[in-house]
Amino acid sequence: MDRAQHALLTDLANLARTLGSPQRLLLLQHAAQGARPVERLAELSGLSVANASQHLQHLKRSSLVVAERKGKQVLYSLAGGPITDVLGALTRLAQHQRSEIRSVISASLTQPDDLEGISLDELLERLRDSSVILLDVRPPEEFAMGHLPGAINVPVEGLEDHLPLLARDREIIAYCRGPHCVLSTSAVDIMRKEGIRARQLNAGFPEWKAAGHTVVTGA
User: What one GO molecular function would you report for this record (predicted)?
Assistant: First the structure.
């Protein structure tokens, strides 16, 4: 092994060690939605501020997040590069190696076809002919930070109350935070039980943004 190859593999191993933490993967998922202070990231991830700060420093040293001072706050967001692609690839590998992850995602979805989603490419085609409705099931805070054009925001915890208001003449495509997020899976399950045609986007808002597609901000 030559020196250059050894250096590259060493960097890869160090990156793998940094990602080898569920807490850090969760922090990356939330950081991918937009810039947030450590206190908010800690709250969303169920961590203490001190613990979240330590994990964020590891992620920063590995160039996975960037920190920007805004007034008295330091805001963390996802760094540049194909980070969302890496997270998506890790998820697909885990699903390939452990097919039982399907039951972990949603025990109520018993048919394999129920988990079949829609790709970004297919979604773009369906949006062009206006044959689908986009449903963003993330919290309003994240929706306002950035969402897909034309999407309506109904957080999954309040979806059942909004079912009578949903149009039933088109298929509804639910999306959320990305490959580790199960909000859209739960939303699709709720809608299908009421006879609503629904699928989930295989990707999420970070993947849409990383692909260079138009992003809308505000409520």
Answer: DNA-binding transcription factor activity
